[in-house]
Amino acid sequence: MSTQIPDIKEKTGAVAAYLTLGIWGFVWLLISRKNYFDQKDFVRFHCFQSIFIGILYMFIPQGIAILFSLIIQIINLIPGTSFITNAFHVAHGMLQSFVHYGSLVLIIYCVIFCIYGKYTNIPWISQMINRMLR
């Protein structure tokens, strides 16, 4: 990635991209698409990463909910297993809370790095974004 130090406008754009879960990042990329090569690597990296994190933030909890719903419906076919389904409901609630709080911590981590003008290093996600921006 580039060694240029981002200015306050770029840092603010990157922070806004994370705080809106990628919506502002998507708008920023569309607005500045005509000057694609004039965009700083810092802003493009964080915009794309915020979009990807926003998509994951929407789809992972939904996938978990679908999975637990299917498991609970299959277990409900067996008579007298309400205590097991109650345990699955509790486990589902705890897992959803863990995913939401973990996502919040990830977003705060990314925002702090943006404020300092640095690139975040999230395994798999950051590497994929780096390959995409080459």
Mean pLDDT: 88
Structural class call reads mainly alpha
Number of separate helices: 5
Q: Largest beta sheet, briefly?
A: none
Number of strands: 0
The backbone outline, from C-alpha atoms, is: elongated
End-to-end separation in angstroms reads 9 Å
Please, how many domains?
1
Strand content: under 5%
Element order, helices and strands?
HHHHH
Radius of gyration: 19 Å
Q: What is the share of helical residues? A: over 70%
> Uncertain spans, ≥5 residues at pLDDT below 50?
none
Model description:
- The structure is a single chain.
- With 134 residues, this protein is mainly alpha-helical.
- It has one domain.
- The chain has 5 helices and no strands.
- It has helices spanning 8-19, 23-31, 41-76, 82-115, 125-133.
- Helix 1 (8-19) packs antiparallel against helix 4 and helix 3 crosses helix 5.
- The longest helix is centred in the middle third of the chain and has 36 residues, at 41-76.
